[in-house]
Design a protein that fits this description.
Helices cover 44% and strands 7% of the residues. The chain is mainly α.
Length: 223
């Protein structure tokens, strides 16, 4: 949103991002810093997880972005099939979160009883996105002047090194969490809330005591 609508989107907070190592042609100083800065043990583990997911855990993307209707009918026809499809992701993409039966059934029920037509639209959107020329434009490039906050979680699908995030835009807030996965807002909601309060709040780590995105809309401070 920040890349495509910078006049409307003044700041973004992300707990998952797409990125690449700094480029020598577009960001030479950052690339030099990247060359001279060793990855931390956590970053090495994150890259290993990202490689594993990319080779062993991306089958869902392939089928949802190429043959979504076939899968959509199958999921809409079988509650057990839908349960297996979703539970696999809840298990593999979280950080040993102790899912209860009620939580799992709540997630599955949102898809099964969706007024949009059951679970099929949730896979169809992958096809539409992957076949849109605008979808991937700029996702891994500098966004301009839109301020960014990044929260890193070790069991995200593809946890990337901190310096890679700096290729996306001006980082005004960043935090590395010791636990949490792709469903961080469910697994660790208190962490997400704390990050947003600091990033956009009056009291934060920025100059003058405010968060890095405090008062990002001119004439308004959010209070």
């Amino acid at each position: 949103m920040g890349k495509r609508f910078p006049h409307s989107c003044k700041a973004s907070h992300l707990n998952v991002f797409l990125g690449a190592p700094p480029s020598w042609t577009s960001q030479p100083l950052l690339a030099l810093r990247h060359l001279l800065t060793p990855y931390t043990p956590a970053e090495k583990a994150g890259l290993a997880r990202a490689r594993h997911i990319s080779t062993e855990g991306m089958g869902y993307v392939a089928i949802q972005s190429s043959k979504p209707q076939t899968l959509g009918y199958s999921l809409a026809d079988s509650p057990v099939g839908l349960l297996a499809w979703i539970l696999e992701k809840l298990h593999d993409w979280s950080d040993a979160y102790p899912w209860t039966e009620d939580e799992v059934l709540t997630w599955v029920s949102i898809y099964w009883f969706s007024a949009a037509g059951g679970p099929a639209p949730s896979v169809q959107i992958y096809y539409e996105a992957m076949h849109s020329p605008e979808f991937r434009v700029g996702q891994e490039s500098w966004n301009g002047d839109v301020k960014l906050g990044i929260s890193h979680f070790p069991k995200e699908i593809g946890p990337l090194p901190k310096l890679w995030a700096r290729t996306l835009g001006p980082i005004v807030y960043e935090k590395v969490n010791e636990s949490g996965g792709h469903f961080a807002a469910w697994e660790r909601p208190e962490s997400i809330v704390e990050d947003l309060r600091i990033m956009f709040g009056k009291v934060g780590a920025g100059a003058g005591g405010g968060g890095g995105a405090y008062g990002v809309v001119k004439g308004r401070d959010g209070y």
